[in-house]
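User: Assemble these into one structure.

Assistant: Restating your components, then the assembled model:
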Amino acid sequence: MHPFKEAIRAETRRQFFGTAAKGIGGLALANLLAHDAFALPQTSQATDAIGGLPSLPHFAPTAKRCIYLHMMGAPPQMDLLDHKPGMKDWYDKDLPESIRQGQRLTTMTSGQSRFPIAPSVFEFSQHGQSGAWFSELLPHTASMADDIAIIRSMHTDAINHEPAITFIQTGQQIPGRPCIGSWFAYGLGSMNENLPTFVVMNAERSHPRAGVQAISAKLWSAGFLSPEYAGVGLRTGADPVLYLKDPDGVSTAVRREMLDGLSELNRLRHAQVGDPETLARIEQYEMAFKMQTSVPEMADLSSEPDSTFERWGEEAKQAGKFQNAALMARRLVERGVRFVQIYHRGWDVHSYAPQVLPAQARDVDRAAWALIQDLKERGLFDETLVIWGGEFGRTIYSQGRLTPTDYGRDHHPRCYSLWMAGGGVKGGVVHGETDEFSYNIVKDPVHIRDFQATILHLFGIDHERFTHDHRGLQARLTGVLPARVVHEVVA
Amino acid sequence: MCCLAATVVSGGSSPLAAQESVRTVDFQREVRPILADNCFQCHGPDPSTRRAGLRLDTRDGALGARPRGAAVVPADLEASLLYERITQRNDRVRMPPPALSNKTLSDEQIDVLKRWIEEGASWDQHWSFAEITRPDPPAVADEAWVRNPLDQFVLARLEAAQLRPAPEADRRTIARRVALDLTGLPPDPGMLASFLSDTSDQAYEGLVDRLLDSRHWGEHRARYWLDAARYGDTHGIHIDNYREMYAYRDWAIAAFNNNQPFDEFTLDQVAGDLLPEPSLDQLVATGFQRNNITTNEGGVVPEEYEAIYAKDRAETIGSVFLGLTVGCATCHDHKFDPIAQREFYAMTAFFRNTTQYVMDGNVSDPPPILVVPDDDDRALWSQLRREAADIDGQLQARAASVEPMFVEWLTRGHHRELESPLDPAAELLTLALADADGPAVWLEGERRAITVHPGAVIEPGPNGHPVLMFDANSWAELPSLALDSDTPFSMALWIYQPEDEGNFVVAGQYDQQDGARGWAMTISSRQLSFRVTGARAAPGRGATSARVGPINTKRMPTGEWTHIVVTHDGTAERGGLHVYQNGELVEEQGSEFFAKAEGSILTDQPFYLGRGDATSSTGEPEVRHFGGGGIADVRLFNRALTVDEAQIVFQWRALQRAAAKSPEALTGDERDTLRLRYLSIEDDEYRRLVARKQEIEREWREVRRRGSVTHVMQERPDSEPDAHVLIRGMYDQLGARVVAGTPAALPPMAESLPRNRLGLARWLVDEANPLTTRVTVNRFWQQVFGTGLVETSEDFGAQGALPSHPALLDWLAVDFRESGWDVKQFFRTVVTSATYRQAATTTPDKLERDPQNRLVSRGPHFRMDAEMVRDTALAASGLLVRTIGGPSVKPYQPPGVWSTVAMPQSNTRRYEQDTGDKLYRRSLYTFWKRSAPPPSMDIFNAPTREHSTVRRVRTNTPLQALVTMNDTQFVEASRHLAQRAMREAGDDFDRRLDYVTTRLLARDFTPEERAVAKRTYGRFIDAYRGDPDEARSLLAVGDSPFDAALPVTDSAAWTMLASQVMNLDEVLNK
């Protein structure tokens, strides 16, 4: 390879990956370059991907896209997916020490003199061929019993939100590591022409009393991977991408004139100085211009037929609502976005759980169902992994005052439930079991690392071999401790 | 594996390796990286993962005798087992093991090791740990090109690579470059013009000196430093509230502007507080170590975060001064560098002997803090401090001198006649639970019955005094008191804290329907808090409160009675509130120092004991009665009690018991309390002095209001720095205890140095320490040339890159140290060199042979950092407000960036954009919320400042284009630049264009460029002529008004043209 061309190619590749993940329009740039000498070869074995590592995937993937619905604040498993009928008899009795086993408590309840058991006030019933139990709060999810795999034996190392959410997103409790979406952007590259590889959205809480936890840029940061692999925040509402809109008084025609002149001036500069970066910058401005069209098109729900909103409900039209973000997620994966992360806030139920949970669940239950129906109709479900769950579980005992109709629940890292569907996940599975208090796991524990290894597996990635050299070590999402793929939930 | 090492070892085509390959194999450059990358993981410093007991990171390990023979036998390939193993064909025997390590040596790497052994297996210390000596500048062929010794090093490499330096940049280009490098701003047109007209030999040097003298120099250098220091304006995680820290930022600016020697700069930041009689500045400097992110998350276990803070501080010292990734040894010995796990924890020990409490309380000023008075107040500040100390002396003297009178007072038996703890006139209200006619209060001398709700019981408490105990549904109602914002008052009472950890209102008088206006004493999770709350500013708006409470460590003990006094000095300000616990003034926390209850706190609601009407965070009513709690001996006074008086009230029970005693029978404590009472109530002179002290406190507060507060370091006086090894890095898995110390592989700390931060600081800048100077000059080089001589400026260890010019690095390091760590002198040397003055022009030949410009075969040319891009736009447009320092500002930011991620209770939830001058300050003053940094900076690769960053990544993305095209700041700046050009450059198109390009590029456009600009301008004019409303819309972007005297169409077209120029690659690049 000619070194001069190699240098330009190296430059261009860097720019290109930048656009592929952080910005917009990877393939379009590839197309622009397709007829010149430095055109990019397909670098990933996945024939539909741009960028990514040549070594990936390690084996045939079942999932190509992921929509990760994170319930920020940690939903209580015993009110939703982990049915504990025996607890009715334990109302207001103390959690036996034999169960608690000196478990570390948060300082919010460590001073409590009692740990009175609060049975769920919600009814449960069995659904689907698997006969899985679902709370009355999740009727739509229940109707998909045979499409989803429920893991009831998730457990984590962290007991507070900041470290726990950082852990499940990045594989480490302390900020600084790449998040799971950025690992995918880095490893598998982009599948679309003019949208980011990895998109992040926030959805507001559904009940005014719902406890809210902070989210922050570190949850979608690329850590030690290059920043282009970080998630792009997509805002639901008027300005989906920051600074996307031209200023008032600048029409598309004026913008085009400005860009034409700019590009000409930059080319003159390049002729003088010869820095390949200048050429790359010209392309970035062109990509920006394209984004100004493609992003609003994606975000414009007016093209959705009425049937969409009949299925999703009117909330799907409201910016900020979970339903809206989930619908946007469907539109994003339809357009080839690889990883969509949604944070639904308001699950930190230290108090008023019986009041808060119906509203919180109502929003996510129907939307998750609608999302999966839409994916199925479009033939995307088989290749799209959908995940629903939080960062840890909650205690069977009440935090604060317990009454027959009111209780709160503290953080609980030892067990919790989540579900996965599509993308090669085996439907109709319930994996793992907890004790009668939903306090300890009695069968098939799944650690955060196992969960991460399983997600990677569905994408055809061996978590032990997917590494990035960082400070001399081969860093990986699942860290240095052993992790196991949960084959029981893999089809 | 680092890129540079890869280039060096993998092929002769690399220019960096080009001249090396003709010589013998270089252990440092070629051999050690291969061993480090491929072998150290199992044969390195970490014994826990070491296989076969073999070490290849030390000479003894590699060359030493072993049962089956040494791994490496110099000059004997056949006997060298290492060579045998790496050349095995059998996968199961070959090293590194393919299955386990995922690593394979290339043929070139094997060849390097082969030749190295054949040539005698020379072994040197890792390059960066080696002692530095000043190398002689190498001889060069083209001596005429050389301007200073730096150039010899660069030119020698270029000549070896058969490259010619680029021609010298033209004067305008170099003026722009040097202004940007030294001040972060494009050259002022006046300065540019005088430089261009100066034909003397020293014209350029003169320009450099002027720029070094500019106060913007310090801002620009500090801006880089703030990344390293991880400076931010919020705590960084969870609620991520405001943190008042900007005095540290301003200190850094001043330190660079004053050209403080870098060794002192280091000393002050690492250990300013431990220096003898530290100055205010030296204390402020220690904020360097308070910049780390802190938490107050509800469930946090303090020990865990104590460990995290110490780790962050040790890692920051590691990367900023030593260029070492010491944090890699958190869980195990470092895999590549000689840093054992216990050595890492010995480094964390330096930071574990702090008085700082882990939980930041979500307040802006968690202790230890320091008040930083305004410059104008510094004299007054010292005077007040002197006077306060003076008064303390006088009080003591007065107490001693009145002893005879006090004895007389006792002898006369006055202590037997006491009816109230203080003078009766001070008593506003006194609770009388055991009154014969039923529970009552004495209100200004008048008995008033009170209502005790059923469920609350009056019973004898400890010592037989009556107490009022509540259940969850009961309270007592007292008469309403007329307490307003300007009413000084104090409240004293005994409180029984139940086992329940809940949230309670203990006492209060407030109107829940009116934004809780009034005052209340509450307990939440055993933390007491007292607030005064003013009126709502407007319907629907919240009322403001001032709140005070003991710091987290002073929680109410459960199942016990605690005496509490709260005082209010009639200012309704947090600073005017105090809390005393069992007679002692407690260290306070709980709200912002200057928080003030605005408007009146007066309410006609009843005064309740034990009743809690509250509103949840979601606005719903909540009951927080004091169920299980108890109250006794409630007293309100009509003044803010003094420290002595709070003690007397606390001791009142004891004084009453003492009344039965003769003076001789009094215990020492009783006598002391009586003496305090005598002084405080009976002695006018003592009272006068105390009153003056209270006045000083108020004056002091005024000074504090005008100044700021900053976070500082403070050692615990009663313990030595130590730590435990944390097994696998887990905070609760304590291993061996270690004392503070530095890694053994580096030159030792002198015996004479204390084993604390001061010792660490002196060791860092010790002449024998080879790292601090190398790392520092490398980072400065990186600021100018875009890449350090060592590309991995954060890592000078075995996994870091090797220096492109090792001798130059050492020459610069020694020169820097010998100049007295003179930062300005260092930059002067760099920017006056011929190397620096090269044009940025590249050629296909150079792109081929020096693609990244690591050989500096041309001038630096790279995209500027976020701050420089924005500051350039502000400066060129004339909008820039050049004020130095002060509180951080909130310029334009798209809506929702903060609110969508923040917690509802965060005080940085809503971004309240500033107006006026604050929109146009330099970017290093932009408010840095660490969980949502300013997006226009983030998009241009500014770090979040959660951790220390010494090297920014530089990407080139469409989002960046969107910022400079569409961000209000840039559009408004384009308009200002355009309208200024129209006003100041006359009507001629070309002169106006020159005006614009001179400010942005320090040059005029070429005829070709002019043609493009003219044509585009014509199209803009056509577009806006057809639609003047559009033109007006464009001109209305931004807060500042447009100049309506100028024609609208032309203004809009010129705005677009200015924006076009502002978006040029050349403008975005340095």
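The longest helix of chain B spans residues 378-401.
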